[in-house]
Amino acid sequence: MTTDHESNVNLDDATQRANQEITEAYDKRVYTSNAFPFSSPGHLRAAAHIWGLESVPLENARVLELGCAGGGNLLPFAVAYPQAHVVGIDLSSVQVKQGQEVVQALGVQNLHLHAMSLTDITPDFGQFDYIVAHGVFSWVPPEVREAMLRILRNNLSPNGIGYISYNTYPGWKAGDIVRDAMLLHSHSAQTEDDKLASAKAMLNLLSQGIASSNPLASSLRAAVAQLHQHSDYYIAHEYLETFNNPCYLLEFVNLADQHSLTHVGDADPHVEMAVTYGQNVQLNHSLVALGQPREMRQQYLDFAVGRNFRKSLVIHQARAGQIQAAPDMKRLADLRWAGQFTEVEPEANAPKGRVSFRSYKNHPLYTNDAVVMKVVRTLSEAWPASLDFDSLLERVRPVLVGVDDDATARKTLLETLQTLFRLNSLRYALELSPYDATHAVGREAPTLIPSFAHIQARRADLEFGVGTFNLWHDSINIRLREAEALVLKNIDGQRSRKQLATILRDALNRGDVVSTDGKSLKGQRNLDATADKIVGKLLDLLKQQGVLV
Q: Which of 19, 233, 404, 461 lies 20 to 30 Å (CA to CA) from residue 328?
């Protein structure tokens, strides 16, 4: 009889070859390593609280990511919590090396990246309070999936929270067809580029060339339309890799159970609420799921909404009794809230009689509710800092017309937050956000979050695989013109806005850079207003994206 350690380290030849194929694929086509907010320890801690679970405070937490690529999903947390212990592992030595170079250049002492197979992790690797595996589970052979669950069983601390994302049915049924067609058309390609081009050519048949009588036409067109929104590296890794094995939620629940783990629910708890999808879904789901266990109700809802991707929270089976049957909406009052919205002109298809907002992630919000508008505007003024429930209530009270008692006021605000929560419009945390300790409204000298300027500059190299981020763990993509890049390079926490404008003015006058409209202003005088306008717009953008502290 072999031990658990031996059974996973002494892999058979087929698994060794599969690992080698995966390594070569990611080494050849560098995957941009970005931050994913729903997998951040801060978000997982808040989500766990909504599910009724205790978790470990972030300041000194131990975090492990399986399949970390260049560390882009770990850097925001490591930078924000220098006393935490953060570890990432990945098969691709090329991507790990890039991440290690960034870590060294930034002087980040608490982040350690290793090029190794997760099958080599044993209990001796240590215990971690948050174990994250984003974009790995569906794309590896069965033996590696088993190893991931073994790691969660053996290396997750007693109050730890595990996170595993994966493609799921029924929504991925159309994706299977698209993938099969792409693989068929690209099977004889000799190079990676030819393979990708051949695969993408098949998308035309499955969208523009699909027969109207095809009963799957709408599903296939939707799958192709979603693909068109993604980059080439996403298509290559999502659809053309050797492994892509979606599963039903209940299949994942069963696998977790075999490893003494319990599936909690999605890391975005609002997606587990039938009311999120409208009254018809809520009514019919409640009828068919009445009296069913939590996991069965979640599976029924997956059928109703056609879910194709899951972000599962898992914990030790011994804690299963602590999980709430459904996300506890009363616990939203325990959280801190943040958001950034800009009021915009209503679009042609916007609901009539409502005010139109756009979040900093460009998501729309339409409302004529005075309390919703006050919450949105209040949080936008505080952004990127967060506000607790009582602070938010104090600022919202002026619009609570006719509400005199505290209990009714709290109930009204809680209902408003529940609405915005279901719409996925706000960010939330269980404890102070990284901005709350440092944020100073009207600070004289603008200050960038650590790492942003360095990574932004490195991204000029197309082979560089680490993305920029803010401390809410968002992936940030900002394209800067020449003049703006010059200003960014000089934002160091020491220079005021006026001083930054002076630097830009002189550079424009010398012809070192052109203006943001592409025109040279070399030798021109009276450029103070032009420079100040450029600096002001850049600072507004940086604040909006949460990269100023």
A: 404
